[in-house]
Queue: 2 jobs
Job 1
Amino acid sequence: MLCEFCNKSEAVVHLVDVSNNSRAEKHLCKDCAASQGATIKSHMQKSSSSTKDASDVLPEIFQNLSATSGAAETEACGQCGTTYRQFRSSGKFGCPECYVGFNVKVSDLLEKIHSRCEHTGKVPSTASEDLAQQKELQTQQKLLQGLYADLDKAVNDEDYELAAELRDEIQRMQAGTAEA
Amino acid sequence: MELSDLQTSPGEWLGGTGPEADIVISSRIRLARNLAGYPFLSTANEQQLGELERMVRERLLNTCRAEGMSYFSLPSLGPIDRQFLVERHLISRELASGKGARGVGLAVDETVSIMVNEEDHLRIQGLCSGLQLREAWERVDAVDTRLESCLEFAFSPQFGYLTVCPTNAGTGLRASVMLHLPALVLTKQINKVKRAVEKISLIVRGLYGEGTQGFGDFYQISNQSTLGKSELDVIELIENVIPKIIGFEKTVRTNLMQQKREVMEDKVWRAYGMLKCARMITSEETMDLLSAVRMGVSLGIIQEVKMDAINELFLFTQPAHLQKQREAQLDETERDVVRASYIRKRLQQSD
């Protein structure tokens, strides 16, 4: 295999860069690899310092993130006006809305910091009531869809007795949801 | 409660009563919370800061009557009082040196403290003696749940509690255990512990948190990530690793006692002698010597001093504590004299 850089000498150095779930390979000859030595060195430094204080890690993450997301530096949160550049340099959000305010995917950023991006753990009681209500609504809707499907089937089968029962059931359920 | 009421006692967490207290000094849990509908402190103006502080203070005092909560506004405290609270681990250095409306709510036994307008709107902290992370969590969780009934916290089902810095988002929980590891420092094996602990995504820090070195051979082990693991999962992760570090420290102590008994005894007794005789002593030297004496007490080399007396000395010889005892502002040299005299007196008492 020839060197990708000079296309002349045999490639003897094979670099594999895995970042952002993608894999990039580079095949270089000895001389070209040496001339790109700085790059190789900096990669090694990055991997050897994987666990530092969170505040030290942030600038590095931001650098990687903005290179891939193309987020505009001047883009600002609609609620508090904090720009992405300000967030990048301070590592601090301006308000709770910033979590959804920037074009850059906050979930990607959080995943880089914490290795995960879905909260598990305590939920405020007020929020948990909302969540429970939402879930209940969703299950009711699923039930209703099922009943409608059964009703269609009953009508097709000309089972009008069952169809009438299902219709009443649907009406009762809809009345219940409307009240709630 | 007045701040001066605190100075005569070391606080429950330094009582040396908790499990594994000869090596584990304290267990701490802190939660970061912000109010929904308000800007974070990074963008809030002076008026909003004041409004936030007033509202939180009022609700705090109303809901935490059971803890005997007192509230102290930081701008109304002098520099010695602020430093006094930092030395007791009740507020952070950031809150002490910050600007604008901010304060701290303190439970009467000092096991719960709530910083208002630190980096986040609220930082709720629970502090227990020895290895008792779960107890600290239960206290903090109870206060958090009660506060939740009168304050709406910024929360997203996906990202959890929303915090100023994305490194705290999710549970907003930092759990840390403070360890006294003189034998591992002495045998230069502390870096082994650091590396092993970092492999499971925990961090090792010094006595006063981020950026401080291991003064007096004290190290804090805490979690780094706050998102995607429940509070109890994080606590369990730390609870599982601490006994291994305790075991390592104990093994090294035993080996040292078997192989270098005279060297160990000499180190401990010399440190004790210095403390009992010195006429001037700096805070750093005090910490180093107390650390050796503490290990000596734990190994039974010195029996005439009790562990709790040594624990108290670590706290009461800090600059702000000395100045509060003397009720005077002292410069560095004056402090060194007062410190040495205080230590001599305390060690004579325990003879």
Job 2
Amino acid sequence: MSAMVDAVAVEKHFGAANVLSDVNLTVQEGEVVCVVGPSGGGKSTFLRCINRLEKPTGGVVWVDGEVMGYKRDGDRLKEMRERDVRRQRRKIGMVFQRFNLYPHMTALENVAHSPVKVNREPRPEAERRARELLERVGLADKIGAYPNQMSGGQQQRVAIARALAMRPRLMLFDEPTSGLDPELVGEVLDAMKQLAEEGMTMIVVTHEMGFAREAADRVVFMADGRIRETGTPAEILDRPRDPRTQAFLKRVLG
Amino acid sequence: MSGSESLQPLPGAGDTPQRGLAGLELIPRRHYGRWVAAVAVLVPLGGLIWAWANAQLDWSVVADYFTASTIIVGFLHTLLLTAVAMVLGMLLGVIFAVMRLSSNPVTSSVAWLYVWAFRGVPTLVQLLLWFNLAIVFPTLGVPGVFHVQTIAVITPFMAATLGLGVNEGAYLTELVRGGIISVDEGQHEAATALGLSQAQSLRDVILPQAMRVIVPGLGNETIGMLKMSSLASVIAYSELLNEAQKVYFVNARVIELLLVAAGWYLIATSALSIGQYYIERRLGRGLQRVRPRSAVERLIIHVLERISARRRGSGTA
């Protein structure tokens, strides 16, 4: 087993505000890591630093053996051109809280778009695979539907299929069920569990403690821009040592 | 407060619970004010029509020249100039809008400067400047590579196209920029996370969604351009107004020919309005917020909908 993600001393500040300070996290290949913690604690920002939607102001992130956004030049790291960052991003899939499907494209077009435009796959091949992926997330009958004709849970499953269409080595989930009606959360979590069982490396920012307990190999608790505690789901959720974690879990789990 | 009140039975309601049902006639409110308004408007309107019908002008001249070949050619030139200037304006609009939104301070400043300059100088002044370019630059070209006589290149049509198109581009820059900004930020993020380049993201994801905001404005701009193209008469481009003027310089039928021109402008702007209605309806499917419409617009739309409903009806029958 080798490290899929290795975040080293990642920092991010917007002006004077420190959003992330000295975040270190290693995620092994095939591992599922859930990141939990209070809102505004830096969870989403950290996730976005991994695929460089956000540029960290300090530290580096290794993904699959490469430093994100930098090229090694002797004993220096030189910032890459945008097109090289794009090449790195292709192996990282991302699912957003608000789905962010393209509203003017059908489910099939949403999923097949990047493989055709970015990976230059032939369209028939990309569409065949898009159908397969949509079937896998249980949406065989929604292939021709537009996002506004689908429920939130269906849209989020299309978004998962869209990310998988790029054959990522790593999947990032940014509060994937926070924008959903309660009765639709289960169908999205089921799709994610299935993905975890298939061996996908996943980092999931979530408020779903049940999912963390069931599917995560490790749980990370973040607050005030720092990782306060890391451990197995049982260690963090049942026997938290950090007082911040204890207080947070008391509020969330009641 | 009103909520709790509405729960109370109205006074007397208990006595006759079936009021309004037991054979009692329901009488809608009469809108007497509308009849008063109609009379107040129609009487002066009738007077106005009577005045024009009996004015010192020869309606047969209007009728004769309405389809005269010089007028028709002028009208076609007006349409051509409108189309070419709008295409140029749209190209410049998209390019400068993207530049304006760029994170590169140089490109965004250049775009700002363009909008500032060409929106700030009257269109007529711009047209005259382009037309008289030869005075300051007798030849155009790259030194040592090639050069041409400015006067040969800047024809009245070229000056009109450049003047109107470059001016329009400044307005469309703002329109396109507004459209791009209106698209949810998450769309660009999703496209970036999926590995799309800036250009691919703009073309496939952002602009198609921005069009919903841009197209209604673009329709208005096109109608404006059609009317503004009459300015080109000043630099002797043979568009509709210029052709009408050439006729009345000879036969002195000034008002008759201006009415001919006005009629053709109205026909063209009406046709554009109808086209705009259909395009907006097509783009808006399920998503569009509705712009408040005037009574005349509502009437036109009502007629258009009746026509298309009838056509659909006959199609299925």
